[in-house]
Specification:
The chain is an alpha+beta fold. The protein has helices at residues 5-35, 37-40, 212-221, 250-272, and strands at 61-62, 68-74, 79-85, 89-98, 108-115, 130-133, 139-145, 163-173, 182-193.
Amino acid sequence: MAENPRRTHGVRRALTGALLAGLTLLTSAGTAVADDPSASASPVDDGAGPTEAGTTFRTATALEQGQTGTARASAGDYLYWVFPADAGQRPTVEATVKLPSSARSSTSTWQIDVYDGLRRRQACMYGHQTRKAAADAASVELSCVLRTVRSWSEPWANDPLPGSYYIRLTVVDLPAADLGLPVGVEVKAASKEQGGAHDVDGALSEPLVPGVSVASAGDAGSAGTASAAPRVPSAGEPEDGWASGWWTDRWLWTVGGGVLAALAAVFGYSLTRGRGRPAHVPPGV
């Protein structure tokens, strides 16, 4: 029996519509994830941040992303905070130094630096990492936008990796007569998700958090004991654990590409298989 040409045409139209609909849905989903600020912004903690700062790397005050840390210090002190950053995030650090209202003898220069878990200084993509404050200035604002954190990198590279990031704030140029003057500091760290465009193959065995190897060994040794206490996140580690890039929008593109390939194969087969046996040819010929 000959195949109905109308039916074949209807099947082709349906497959073509499904193919175009799938392509449109996939493209719009990827564009929404990339362009929608609300979808890419990291969660912000509205709770009160810490009210003190450390004076060394070891005593750095833990700061969650989205929190604002405050501190009272003296001009000339080194102030340290530490916050976590995971794969796919681009951290931004902002700091405001409130200078004393009393007259100062000269201008001062303030600087903010960011170090990773290996205490390697990370370069700022852009921002005001170093700024001068006039003698009568009430405050000075600093900022540093880091590169996107990668899930894995070559050992010789200086790429940002998942783990703890240390903020160091200090004055680098100040007259001796102004040393010790009281200052107020506000620091905030936040990140923006960059999506699968920055994904790489590979992942670290452990994030770059000081003491994570010792903690992992302790957890493995106490795994068989019933009285083992729940693990407490260390400073510079997110409370809900590390994602480390296990989920990215590349999964959406992979699944969507597979669906589109299957639809294209079915559509191509429907075009090349022909219309079947002609009506005037008897069966068995």
